[in-house]
Amino acid sequence: MNEPLNQPPNERTNNLRLAVVGAGPGGYAAAFLAADLGIQVTLIDPEANPGGVCLYRGCIPSKALLHVAKLIEESQQAKNWGIEFPVPKIDLSRLRGWKENVVKKLTGGLGQLSKQRKVEYIQGRAAFENSNSLRITKVDAGETTLTFDRIILATGSRPAIIPALKLDSPRMMDSTEALNLEDIPGSLLVVGGGYIGLELGSVYAALGTRVTVVEMLPGLLPGADRDLVLPLHKRLEKMFEGILLNTTVASLKEDGTGIRAKFEGQSVQENNREKTFDRVLVSVGRKPNSEIPGLEKTQVQVNSRHFIEVNKQLQTADPAIYAIGDVVGEPMLAHKASHEGRVAVEAIAGHKVAFEPNAIPAVVFTDPEVAWCGLTETQAEKEKREIRVAKFPWGASGRAVTIDRPDGMTKLIVDPQTERVLGVGIVGAGAGELIAEGVLAIEMAALASDVAMTIHPHPTLSETVMESAEVFFGTSTHVFRPKRG
Amino acid sequence: MIEFKLPALGENIDQGDLVRLMVAPGATVSEGQAIMELETDKAVVEVPSSVSGTIKEVLVKEGDKIKVGQVIFTADNNGASAVDAKEAARQQEPAPPPRPEPAQRSSGTTAAAAKPQQVPAPQPESQATPRRNRSTDAPASTEFRLQELGENISEGDLVRLMIAPGAKVSEGQPVMELETDKAVVEVPSSVSGIVNEVKVKEGEKIKVGQVIFTLQGGAASVAEPARPQRQPVEHVSGQHGARLAFQAAIRAEGKTEEQALPPDQPRSAPASFSMPAQLGKVAGTEHRSPVPAAPHTRRLAREIGVDIYEVKGTGPGGRISEDDVKAHAKAALSAATMQVPARAGHFAAPKLPDFAKWGKIERVSMRGVRRKTAEHLAESWNTIPHVTQHDRADITELEQLRARFAPKAEQAGGKMTVTAIALKVCAAALKVFPQFNATIDMEKEEIIYKQYISIGVAADTDRGLLVPVIRDVDKKNIVELAVELSQLSQKARDKKITLADMEGGTFTITNLGGIGGTAFSPIVNHPEVAILGLSRSRMEPEWIGGKFEPRLILPLSLSYDHRLIDGADAARFLRWIAEAFEQPFLLSVQG
After folding, report:
1. Domain identity same for A105 and A144
2. Pair (A270, A385) in one structural domain
3. Which residues span the domain enclosing A412?
4. A40-45 and A17-21 beta bridge pairing
5. Which of A284, A303, A332 is the C-terminal boundary of a domain?
6. I need a labelling partner for A101 at 20 to 30 A (CA). Which of A140, A384, B27, B401 fits?
């Protein structure tokens, strides 16, 4: 979402020394841009290479596994198309090895890019001495104290834990441990029906685990529009052993055979009040890593939800210190962090910039994928904002039918006065790739007619975006739904 | 029957004055034949016909203002030649590309042509005036001085010098790059020749008027020095330009950039959970609905200090373009400029220093005549491009007449002064040169010729400068004028003069001869277009008939509005006046 900087590095940046604490997608994007602008950059992270949670323990390994999960699913579905495979044999160590290779390849590549840019990479942990100096404890022993003009905190987040469900057992997993893929448990309880729980639950389900998801709220993927979640919910109902909504886990106890979970909630009947699972994955959200040693020696302020407070330039209450990514707030998404990282560096370089996107896409990489950006129907309803929604069902998409995935839907949320596209929501195979067009449409303030009059390639799923805009005008080629009134 | 309509004449030209008509009913015209001459804002153009045939009726006449699309003549498409046939065919088709201008004639363009008629023609003054300046008063020079760079720019830093001694320069060739407050500009030479000496070097601050280089031998062709022939080329990017405009705007408000743009304050992070893509909940973002502007546009707005939410988008659905942001910044700039009271002119008075620092001062409020004079003269000076023409009149003989008739005037209660005679002379001259008795109506783009001659005479009183007007000067004899002038002057000095006595003048005379001086530049009494200044007459040796003779010489200074009056006309007018003074007999013949 950044445009290229239109000014060369100035005197201000030439002798500027910058430390970036944390080398996730926010931190390394910031460090690399700063280096490109002629700033002297030190990047500090405990891992051997940049990457952070996203590459080591998040987006990337989970997507590698989800790719495999999808292959398994499709091999089973192939029966419908006249091709039958025997039950797949899963070599867990090779699967794990492949996933680790993906991570290594990408993080190693970032290490290279870091060197090429002459970024000083220190493998270690940083603590504040004061607003301008950091004491760095290196992983390979040794300590060093360095002074900087500016410091960017990109310390990220970690899986949240519910104290009541804390159980010291090897059967308990958080997302990091779940990605380690130690075994394929017979049964798995996923606590939390958010995107992490559903993605990892899908992986295990595809590998053969009986998965039960427990969600406290009345629906999966809280925050997303219900009509987008519905096709996913339907499919997951088939994949999972159970989806318990409006339900909480009252207790977890380890017994000889597994972990015994006790449920509470409306949908809990006498026959399913208790159940034993081989493993439990707790995915109830993430917590910002704002407990940075020595932070009290600076003016940085942390709010009650443990996020570091920043302004639109990502500057903290301490003028020398900036913060970006998960540690400054929701949504905790890599692409938000990268953009913030770039904005922070531009601000440090003296440009008049602000973090002010019109849309941040959210993608859930389940099957089908769910993706949305900009205004949601849920949000519009809450704000009592007048909108018009145009939906295009994938059953009418030639491409969706050819891949036997008509279980999808593309919708536009449109301002009825200006006909401007305010939000886009997509559920279906590859929705995550399709949502980018929606983000661009919103950022460019496109009208529904702009989208409708843009020629989309046939036959592709991207046509569903165009046709949903045509639905808005009641003139969709493949859906007969005349405009009312 | 076919019609010939005035085709498009070129960009931004939608009308012209018909100065010569070359066809008449019955005449045969063929395609491409010139049929009239039109004077537009930019040039006199010959308009070729785009039709062939015999003219039936001519619907315009010389002196008419003709608009694009107006029907000029109708013709019979007789003797259908090959050309005509082709012509008839073309009438059905979209108009051919406007090559020699015979474009718009198909029926489709008729309706379209009606529209631009409403649009007023661009004002020609800005181009016409400097062009005339150049032709009339261009002094010869062998050096090149830094020319005016633009409004309010008096100096710049020399960042690059592009010439050296011995180099050949020609008019229009860039000779250096100057960095001013506003931009880096390329300064073109206004002279041609071989550079002799370069008087500046890179890094220096150079002021307007400063000598940049001299030419060898002085064999120079010189352009008008006050204004560069080519406008300096400004290297300003869109964003940079807009930023500069903004900075100028806040400077005009007397603020620093920091004051105008308070830094964003840290805001609390929102208190919500789950996975919101709702931007209102993203840390650091304000809860405002997304603005209909592309990221690049939003960044431009931030760069130049415009709140994008205040910009009105002109695109579909209120989409804000880069131009909208710039227009907003420009409007903010002019609003900031307007805030400075511009009472006595278009420009704000510069801030005064504290004079009390250097000695005792007294402040007296400027009231009445003085304030009015200040306002009126500033307005005249700002509105009218002034030029002053000087001449001298030999009034040796007139003086003898004046002395002879003085008692007669005195008898009547007046005083036979040079001013009284000048009134009569000017009235006669104004009859011969009516454009000096006119007014420009810029709004209507018309010239108002007054069919009466009333002349104001500047009077020096205790209250200040007053200008009583003598009406119908041309209908009064010199004795009558002398009497009336004496009465009005007395009335002015006695503070009995009324506003009505000072209104309605068509020309003004100001005589400083009683005090002294050899010449001066009077300011035209707007909305009049000329003023005659008289200085003290004195005996001077004149070369007459092979020897010097003592003659009484009256210096004349005529200031005029160059928008309406060309230099040559002014010279003729003043010469006429001088000769009238010299040969009073002319008055009775011509006046």
Report:
1. yes
2. no
3. 362-472
4. parallel
5. A284
6. A140
| Mutate: best of B239, B264, B272, B278, partner A, most A CBs <10 A | B278
Question: Do residue A294 and residue A148 come from a single domain?
Answer: yes
Amino acid at position B332, single letter: A
In the beta sheet, which residues pair with residue B407? none
Structure tokens at B537: 């007459």
Which of A352, A363, A370 to substitute to test the interface with B, most B CBs within 10 Å? A352
Same domain, A333 and A396: no
- Chain A CB within 8 Å of residue B275 CB: yes
Let me know: does A409 contact A227? Beta carbons within 8 Å: yes
Which residue from B463, B456, B443 is spatially nearest to B484, judged by alpha carbons?
B456
Q: The domain that contains A114 carries what CATH number?
A: 3.50.50.60
Q: How many helices (H) and strands (E) does chain A have?
A: 14, 22
- pLDDT tens, position by position, for chain B (591 residues)? 788 888 877 666 778 888 888 888 888 888 888 888 887 766 677 788 888 888 888 888 888 888 888 888 888 876 444 444 444 444 444 444 444 444 344 444 344 444 444 444 444 444 433 433 443 344 445 788 887 766 566 778 887 888 888 888 887 777 887 776 656 677 778 788 888 888 888 878 888 888 888 887 654 444 444 333 333 333 334 444 445 555 555 555 554 444 444 344 333 333 333 333 334 444 444 456 788 999 889 988 888 888 898 899 999 889 999 889 988 888 877 776 554 444 444 455 677 888 888 888 888 877 667 777 888 888 889 889 999 999 999 999 888 888 888 888 888 888 888 899 999 999 999 999 999 999 998 888 889 999 999 999 998 887 778 889 999 999 998 888 999 999 888 888 887 777 788 889 999 999 998 888 899 999 999 999 999 999 999 999 999 889 999 999 999 999 999 999 999 999 999 999 999 898 876 665 554
Structural domains of chain B in order of their starting residue, each with its CATH number = 2-118 (2.40.50.100), 138-234 (2.40.50.100), 236-257+291-341 (4.10.320.10), 371-590 (3.30.559.10)
Domain annotation covers residue A415? yes
CA atoms within 13 A on the CB side of B369: 16
Could you give the 3-state DSSP secondary structure of residue A195?
helix
**Which tokens hold the place of A337?**
């962090």
Instruction: Show the tokens assigned to A170.
Output: 């090897």
Judging contacts by C-beta atoms under 8 Å, the chain A residues touching residue B302 are: 352-354, 356
Residues A251 and A335 in one domain: no
